[in-house]
Amino acid sequence: MSDASRPTPAMMLHLQTVPARNGLLWIRHGFKVFQRRPLALASLFATFVFLAFVLLLLPGVGMVALLMAVPLLSLGFMLATHLVLQEKTPTAAVFLAPLKLTQQRRNNQLLLGAIYALATVGISLLAEWVDGGAMEQLQTLLGKDAPKAEVEALLADPRLFWGAVTRLGLAGLLSIPFWHAPALIHWGGQGLMQALFSSTLGVWRNKTAFAYNALLWGGLLMGASAICSLLLGALGLGQYLPLVAMPVGLMLTTVFYTSLYFTFIDCFMFGAPKELPAAQGE
After folding, report:
1. Side-chain half-sphere of 109: how many Cα atoms within 13 Å?
2. What does the alpha-carbon distance between residue 276 and residue 264 come to, in Å, rounded to a whole number?
3. CA–CA separation, 104 vs 194, rounded Å?
4. pLDDT, tens digit, 9 for 90 and up, residues 207-216
5. Which run of H or E residues covers position 276?
6. What is the C-alpha to C-alpha distance for residues 183 and 74, in angstroms, rounded to an integer?
7. Exposed, middle or buried, 199 (CB in 10 Å: 0-12/13-18/19+)?
8. Most C-beta atoms within 10 A of its C-beta, which of 57, 97, 147, 274?
9. What residues does each domain of the chain span?
10. Confidence band of 1 (pLDDT split at 50, 70, 90)
11. Least confident of 14-23, 120-129, 158-167
12. Which residues cross the membrane (predicted)?
């Protein structure tokens, strides 16, 4: 039995308040952990993306199953980060490890995923009602390479803006109770509603650190995009931007999920260390 799936008693957790600067610390630790096992961690996210494509081939039920798996994705990466810090190489087994503990925790994780899926579908339906189907129409136009004037006319539709605000705003609010909930169930042994409440309280109490973290990630994404665009443009290779953007996006997304472990231990356990213990060979 792997360490990630070994049954353990619930840990004692206590809610902590951390300074805003820790939002940067989480990102820095995420990069450091990624540097230790870049191929293993990137492969984990690539595996999830591949499974997502497979699930999307299944009509109806595939999308629901994919949405249910999202909370397990974040918890799986927390377990993977924990293994890397123990000088071990994580495998795709980390995504199934939360379902191999007690029956109660497994049921809570599955129910958590189901609630997340239903809430996400509800947000999508509400946003579609707000924009009157404008977003779907825009995707159709972009897919068939419609005339620029037709696309610009649709972009000027205010319903598209308010639909986007609805999607992004409600998706952001939904992430708050689910941010730490899977880990609180897995490590803390908390019940479903208690985990959702504790996660909300943890994010709210440390909202300045999370806001700073979000701003930094936004800056990283925009900066990486600008650098790639400018560099390839200067070399006359602008047409290869999508090919370069894909691995860069994969790396940054993997680092983001890797950093989630530090947001959890900082808010609920022993706090994120200022410096990670040196790995063997460093």
Report:
1. 28
2. 15
3. 14
4. 999 999 999 9
5. none
6. 9
7. buried
8. 97
9. 16-268
10. very low
11. 158-167
12. 38-58, 64-85, 110-130, 210-234, 240-264
